[in-house]
Structure formats: C-alpha cells, structure tokens
C-alpha cells in the first residue's frame, strides 16, 4: 500500500518481485527468540540498518533474495540472523550430517569476518560454525568438519577441496548464501560457485548479496534463485 511505498522511498529502498513483505522498523518486529534478541543487543545493535529492515522480513518468510547495497550497510547480519532462525527450526544434526547453512565469500579475510559475526550471534544457541578457508591446515579443517557444524563459512576453492576430500556432505544444507557475488566472479570463482550450488538440494533457500550487479552475476542469479525478491538500497546496482 501507499504507506509502505512511502516508507521504502524514505529509506531509498527499491524492491521488485512478487508479494514483497513489508519492511520492519525494529528487531522486535522480526519474531526473534529472546536468546537471539539478547545476542543482538549485546552487539550494540539497537535497530536494523536499512538493508536489514527490508531483507530480514523477506528472508524470514523463506523467500530467495538478491540484496544489493554498498559495503558497510550491514549485509552480514541480514543473512546471519535469519540463518540462525532457520537452523533452530530444523531437527538436530546427526553426527555424519553436513551443515544446514553454507556461506560463500570471495576471500579469506571476508570469510573470516563473517565467521566471527556468525559465531557471536549463534553461540548462545549452541550452533557450531566451521571456517573453511585458508589459514588452517586442510587436515585440521577436515577434523573440525567431521565433528559437525550447523554453519560453514567458506571460500569457494577451499570448500570444493573439502567436498572432494569428502570432509563434509551437503545433503542437509537448505540455506545458501553467496556474499559479495560480484567479487567472487571478478576472482574467477564462477565455476566453483556453480559446482557448489549444483551439490545443494534444489529446495534450498538461496540468498545472493552483491555491491554491483554485472550481467554475469544477474544471469547466475536468474538460474539459481527461485522467484527471488530483489532489494536495492541507495544509488548502487
Ligand atoms: P556489509 O557486509 O554490508 O559491508 P557489514 O555486515 O560488514 O556490512 O556491517 C558493517 C558494520 O556495521 C559492522 O561493523 C557491523 O557490526 C555493523 N552493523 C551491522 N548491523 C548493525 C546494526 N543493526 N546496528 C549497528 N551496527 C550494525
Ligand atoms: Mg559484507
């Protein structure tokens, strides 16, 4: 309705897609558990950033999303918080199960930042996060993965290596995030991304975030997302 349209306009949010949920104003509007709410407050996050206001209700409703917003806009929490809700809704992992949530990022540094953020928000719920990128020996990584974790944060190359080594399976994975998709393409990871996506069940929820949307990224998004809602914040895109 007009009020929602005006509210989006005031925040410089543009959306496209069917049945777009309306943006929230507060974290309290998201239906988060008390445990997750206190983890959010502990981070000093008082209210959602602009991208979070629109992305959170979309992702929490189970829809696929293309999120386009510049660096520093708070995209990490936009996909990590609903991932925790998604995981808490699932039956517990069996020992041999692989992760429920898989996050791919272009570089070790970016993956590590996401890893830290995911840990902060998920540790109080007993959710385990595994880091699958350079910096740890492949053998140590393999051991960590064999012990089980609900979330895997990975660079595409290292994740492919681990899959080849049968260090994990993705049969339980139902929540896939491709973060900084444009940079992953710039770094030549398109084949690895396609291979990873091809190994995750098609009834997954897929989230793609990017600062820009070059044609190659747009084409991949069309192929691997189902009825996505596209959200753009600000002048990017
Ligand atoms: P992006 O991925 O869009 O570049 P980040 O997720 O890295 O942005 O977030 C940028 C900074 O903003 C981080 O320091 C993060 O902790 C902080 N941040 C994210 N969401 C909020 C919020 N709702 N309130 C306050 N700070 C936030
Ligand atoms: Mg980011």
TrEMBL record:
Motif Q motif, chain ranges: 25-53
Q: Where is the Helicase ATP-binding domain?
A: 56-231
Q: Which residues form the DEAD-box RNA helicase Q domain?
A: 25-53
What protein name does the entry list? RNA helicase
Name its species: Dioscorea zingiberensis
Q: Which family does it belong to?
A: Belongs to the DEAD box helicase family.
